[in-house]
Amino acid sequence: MKTRLGLLVSATTLAAVISVLVGGCSKPADETGMPPPSTTVGTEIDDSVVTTRVKSALLADPDIKSFDFKVETRKGEVQLSGFVDNQAQIDRATTVIRGVAGVKNIENKLSLKGEATTVGNKVDDGIITSKVKAALLADVNIKSLDIAVETRKGEVQLSGFVDNQSQIERAIETARGIEGVRNVRNEMSIKK
């Protein structure tokens, strides 16, 4: 178990560092005539550290037995989405996150899994998730890299931070247009 936890923490940390490095390579806004970005490289690093700490705390907690969740952080605001087995896990996740340094606010958007899924359902859900992600990437009006997509039994859950309400509406409309999608659950938030 410790090896698995160590591997998960290492992978999460590596992903956070890579995303920060790639984001830090962009040209400064003042040279382009564009308004300054809403976040700085320092803020991105801080958010990545908070995200890593939150994921580590959730994975280490024995009462949260699910790995079926996403954690995103923006300016210290943690958004938790995904699926868990029961309400106690939802409540426990909030309690655990409150104890993590750097967390200013929590949006707990976890959902209950319901009945067990089959291997066939998981494969179908994976295909639907891939199709939704591809459609979001193809739409120039949506900042799809900021949107996480999870699917469970044909129900697509969209989470993350976007610039405005029209991006939320467009993402929902795009996901609904994908074959096999039974329902779309919006857990996206507008960047502050």
Furnish the topology, listing elements before pairings.
Elements: H1 2-23, H2 41-60, E1 69-74, E2 77-84, H3 87-98, E3 105-112, H4 119-138, E4 147-152, E5 155-162, H5 165-176, E6 183-190
Parallel strand pairs: 2-3, 5-6
Antiparallel strand pairs: 1-2, 4-5
Features:
about 190 residues; alpha/beta; Histidine-containing Protein, Chain: A; 2 domains; three-stranded mixed sheet; 5 helices; globular
Q: Counting H and I runs of at least 4 residues, what is the number of helices? A: 5
Order of helices and strands: HHEEHEHEEHE
Largest sheet: 3 strands, mixed
The rough form would be described as globular
Total count of domains: 2
Low-confidence stretches: 19-36
Strand order of the largest sheet: 1-2-3
Distance between the termini: 38 Å
Overall mean pLDDT: 79
- Helix proportion range: 40-55%
What class would the helix/strand composition place it in? alpha/beta
Estimate what percentage of residues fall within beta strands.
15-25%
What Rg, in angstroms, do the CA atoms define?
Answer: 17 Å
The count of DSSP E runs of length 2 or more, i.e. the number of strands, is 6
